[in-house]
Each structure stands twice: as C-alpha cells, then as structure tokens.
UniProtKB/TrEMBL annotation:
Residue ranges occupied by any DUF5013 domain in the UniProt entry: 242-383
Nucleotide-binding keyword on record: no
Chain segments annotated as coiled-coil in the UniProt record: none
Signal peptide: 1-20
UniProt keyword terms in alphabetical order: Signal
Protein name per the record: DUF4998 domain-containing protein
Pfam families named among the record's database cross-references: DUF4998, DUF5013
Native organism: Sphingobacterium suaedae
Amino acid sequence: MNIQYIKKMVRVLLPICVLAFCLSCSKWDEFKEYIDEGEITYVGKPDSVRILSGNERVKIRAILKPDPKISEVRVFWNDGKDSVGVPLDAAMKESRVFEYVLPMPEGIVSLALVTYDELGNRSVVVPVVGRSFGSRYQNGLNNRLIGNAVLNNGQAVIDWLEMDLSAGPFATEIKYKSTTGQEKVVRVPLASMQTIVTDIQETAKTVDYRTLFLPQSTSIDTFATTYRTIGLARDVTAQYLKNTAVPIETTQRSDRWGIPAHWQTNLAVRNFKDANGHYFGGVDYWFNGPFLAMEAGWSADNMASITNGKIYQQVNLPAGFYTFEMDIPDCTAGGEFYTVAAEGDGLPNGSDVGGALAFLKTNTVGTHKLSFTLAQSTTVSLGFVGTLPNKGAGDGTFWRITAVRLKQTLLVE
C-alpha cells in the first residue's frame, strides 16, 4: 500500500515541479535581459514648483535638486503637445533656482516640468497649475475715487475715498507739474487717505492720477488704470465772500442778537424785538458765538415765526465748478433749512428752490457741501433760506452756522 501511495504522489507532484522550473527560468531570462540593457537612471526632479502670474505670461520658479547631472528643464503644456527646453546656465546650477518666463494667454495655466541630463535621462513629471491675467482683468479695473482735491497756499491736498481691495489695488500714482517746471510722478500707498503735494506749480489747474493693481501678491506684472485728469479746487472764500467765520461781525446788536455785516438779511430773519421796538436777527452771540443764525420760539410775545427768512451774499463769479460749504454745529433736526445758490440778486423762497442753480436741505449737524457749475461769468447769490415756527414759550426752532467756504475748480478744456 505504501508503494502505491508513493507512486501516486509522484504522479501529482512531478508536473508541478516541472512547471515551477520553467517559470523560474523565464523570470531569470527577463532579469538577465534587464541587466543587459542597463538599469533605468532617474534625474533629480524639480521641487517647490510655483507659477507667478503676469500679463499674458507667467514666471515658473522651482528649486533644483543638488544633482550635478541635471542639464535642462523642459516645460510642457497643452496636454504635453507643446514644450520648451531650458538649458541650465551657470547661475542656475550654482543657486539651484530655476526661473523662466513663458508667454501664456489669459486663463488657467497647467504645466508639467521634467529635468534631463546630457544622456537624456529624465526625472519624474512634476505638474503645477497657475493663472495668467490679461485684457479681461484689465477691463474690470476702476480708478480710485477722490473726495476732495484743493490747491491752497501752494499745496495740493487730495482726500481719497476708501476702495474695494478684491481686485488687488495697492497704490495710486499722481502726475503733476512741479515748481521746477518738470513733470513729476509720486506713488501713494492705498492705505493713505490724504496726500499733500508740496512742490506743485502755483498756477496748476489739474493733476493726473491712476491706480495700480497686482492681481495676486506674487504677480510679476503691474496693471494700471488709464490716467484721469481732475481739476484742483481753490479756496476762493476770501476773494469773493466776507465775514464768513466765527466771530461774525455785526452792524447792529441788542444783547444776544445782531445783524450780520456784509450779509443781506430780510425782515423775516430779524424777528427779535428789543425794548425800544427795534428788530434784530441773523447773528446769535450765545453758545460760543457770534455766528450766523435763525431762531424762532421760546416766547409767546417775541421771536416770531420766520417764514422764508434769508441770509445771503451776492457775488460775481467767473466760469467754473464751485462748492459752497457750511459748518452747522447745532440745529433743529428736520427743520425747513436750505442752502441755495441762485442766479441774480436774491434767493428764492423755500418752495421755489428747485429753480435755483443748486440747493441742498441742510437741517442736520455737520459740514455740508453744495456744488454748482457756471459756464460763463455770472452774478450769483449764495446763502440760506429757512422757515422756523414759533412753538410757544416752551419750545423753539433754530439753526446756526460757524463758517462758510467757497471753493472753485476751473473748467478744463
């Protein structure tokens, strides 16, 4: 029985052993073939690969492995259909920093980097994705807005408005004629809210400015808006107006109330009657005055209601763009107070201010600005119209001004 068992096992195991031997011979032959052809040699791959965006171009930056065999970096794009080989110069080999600028249309950029040696051995592929910017980005850029630009005492003072940062603005450039007669450009950080130009020509009427952008903080190209020309406003208050700030001069006074010098006032404004039966109004000496004012009320038999009270000055102004400013420290909120610029002599009533050159309801505390344009030399009345009811002994309506200013921007052809 044992002999039969052994024969049976031989018949089973022999084919298996033959098959195993054949397979082992095959693998050995393959290995010998591999040895005969030589072992595959890889070159050190690029490391820390980055794409820096530009204007229809990108800069590729990578760190090279300390492999002396590396002789070239090849950049592939368009799914490998296009490529460019960049031989390493001595500086790249010494610094081991690879940099190359590649023209690319605006949009997402997908590249692959491979290093080679002189024998054609290569590294593994290193993919990298970035972006290029161009006309689409450029066309969406807006210039920074200016709140105020004034030329005063030989200095241009420009007040900037805040700007959205999402598009990458970082600075503004101002171009102007300096006192030497030469054109000068200064760069202002976006964080600056006011710029003072101290060497601008006294006769300057305008300055040019543009805003600079980096679409990404590492971008290699700066984008810019086109230059915009703005007129410089001049403070011409002293040239055209008189008696414009506290302490306001008066021609007549009775205790708290007075009549302002150089300002025209109508009878409605002069609503305080003194013991002699004389009327005063237009200037209030209380509360750190004297300042321009209208007030009614607090008394049942005095300080009568004011209906279309008017305080103004008449001036002859040349063609230009004007801003009439006033500072209101205190007033009855919501009252019928208007600041008006009207052509000719005198101001319209409150119900007719829509026909004036310009008007503004100024019934809140703060600095208010009224702007208007004159195409030619014009006689203009600048001032205030108010309707203030007398609410009896326990209440009143009032309005005060501490200063007015007139600024002129010459029209530029």
